[in-house]
Write a structure and sequence with these properties.
Blueprint: H1 21-24, H2 27-48, H3 50-53, H4 61-71, H5 81-89, H6 91-96, H7 101-112, E1 115-120, E2 140-146, H8 153-163, E3 169-175
Parallel strand pairs: 2-3
Antiparallel strand pairs: 1-2
Helix pairs in contact: 4-5, 7-8
C-alpha cells in the first residue's frame, strides 16, 4: 500500500472551510473541495513527517532508495530491509573513509556481518620516466571475512573493486570460525 491510497486520510487544512461564507452552504463547492482535500492530504502527511523521511531507520521502505541515491549508495533489493537501512545510515562515514583499509573493512563488515581483516601490501612506486615498468610485486589487497551472514562473494567483490584503485589486485577469502 502506498501513501497515496490510504483510505480515510483527512486533510489537516480542509479547503472548503477556508472559502468565503457564500460558498460554505453550496453543496457542489463543498464536494469539489473535499475531493481536492483527498488529493492534498498525502502531500500534507508527507510534509508533516518530512524529518522521518530523512532518517534511514524511519523512512518508508519505498523512499529508502531515494534516500540511498542522495547518499551515493547503491542498494541491493535482495538484501533484507534492516540491512539496507543500516547501509544508508552509515553511508556518510563510509564515504569519509573511502579508499582506506579501515573504510573498506567497515563497508564489507556492514555487508556481511562478519569480522573483516584487510591485508594491504601498501606498495606504491613512481618513475620519472613515463611508461616505465611496474615493480615486480604488484599492489594487492586481501580481504578475509570470518563469521557473519551468508556472504554473496560476487557482490562483496564488486564493492571492493569500486573502492580500491584499478591497478590493485584483490583477493577475497571467506571462511568460518
Amino acid at each position: 500500500m502506498t501513501r497515496e491510497s490510504l483510505e480515510g486520510l483527512i486533510s489537516p487544512h480542509p479547503i472548503g472551510a477556508r472559502l468565503p461564507g457564500v460558498y460554505l452552504d453550496d453543496d457542489f463547492t463543498q464536494r469539489l473541495t473535499e475531493a481536492l482535500d483527498g488529493v492534498l492530504a498525502p502531500v500534507f502527511l508527507a510534509l508533516d513527517s518530512f524529518p522521518a523521511y530523512l532518517d534511514p531507520y524511519l523512512t518508508p521502505e519505498d523512499f529508502l532508495d531515494v534516500l540511498a541515491s542522495w547518499a551515493g549508495v547503491q542498494l541491493d533489493a535482495d538484501r533484507p530491509l534492516a540491512e539496507r537501512r543500516e547501509l544508508v545510515a552509515h553511508a556518510v562515514s563510509l564515504h569519509r573513509q573511502r579508499g582506506t583499509p579501515g573504510g573498506l573493512a567497515a563497508h564489507v563488515a556492514l555487508l556481511t556481518g562478519g569480522e573483516v581483516e584487510i591485508a594491504d601490501s601498501g606498495g606504491c612506486t613512481w618513475s620519472p620516466h613515463p611508461g616505465a615498468d611496474l615493480p615486480d610485486e604488484q599492489p594487492r589487497v586481501t580481504v578475509r571475512i570470518t563469521g557473519g551472514r551468508d556472504v554473496d562473494e560476487r557482490r562483496v567483490l564488486a564493492v571492493i573493486s569500486e573502492t580500491v584503485p584499478a591497478h590493485v589486485a584483490v583477493t577475497l577469502e571467506v571462511g568460518t570460525r
